[in-house]
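Please, does this match?
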Amino acid sequence: MGRLLNISIVLYKTPEDEWKPLVEELLQSENVHKIYLIDNSPEDSEFRIQNSGFRIQGSEVSYRHTGKNLGYGAANNIAMRETIYDEIPFHLVINSDIQVTAEAIDNLLDVMQSNDAIGQLMPRVVGVSGELQYLCKLLPTPIDLLRRILLGKRGKESKANQRFELRHLDHSRPINAPYLSGCFMLLRTEALLKAGLFDERYFMYPEDIDLTRRIHRDYLTLYYPSETIVHAHRQASYHSIRMLWIHAVNMIRYFNKWGWIMDKERDAFNSLVLNTPDTEHA
């Protein structure tokens, strides 16, 4: 059987010691067809990357310099269109700050291959200290986002936010959630053909919510805890006024698209997750 997976990693002034170990590990997977490094940085880093020991352009690693900061979704779409064109059955969108083993990638692909109903998969995600990151969630309401952004730590510790992050569910079991984090999105290409790619109107932040909910209409979008990855989650919008502004502007675009108060699909998806027993989520 041919190689099953393309991978895209978006860079923006990303230090080599962050992305290089990840690429080296991903290349150990027997299923990887090509890794796309999509560089939104102002400067072209192709020469530096070539001298990092990777064979690029037309081989396992392909470097693309966009010439400007297109945003997260638009940059990943460059690689995802290549995946569709080359008829590669799966595509992985992954942050450069993720630590994952090639074995975990292959195991997750086995799960995807074993069940055609799965359109998207995200493993268990922990921080660098081993703490669980609650990255499978309900679809947000405006109040959910305002609580997290404006109230900071107090908002995150509220009962309402714990419900939004599905903390009451058993995270040792799979959860079919309508919102999975964009830090690791293992996607079925067939599902992308049906749902579409990232909405490029978002510069960053809600593009993962938007895509997951569209895939969720026709497929399982599954949190799958049998494999674990490490995520050095920066949460830049909570530490930078500029990034907080970008977050707010793009969330306004999201709610303008899907609805602020009235969003019947959101209500239906969230209700289904909340009313499904733990043992039945997958």
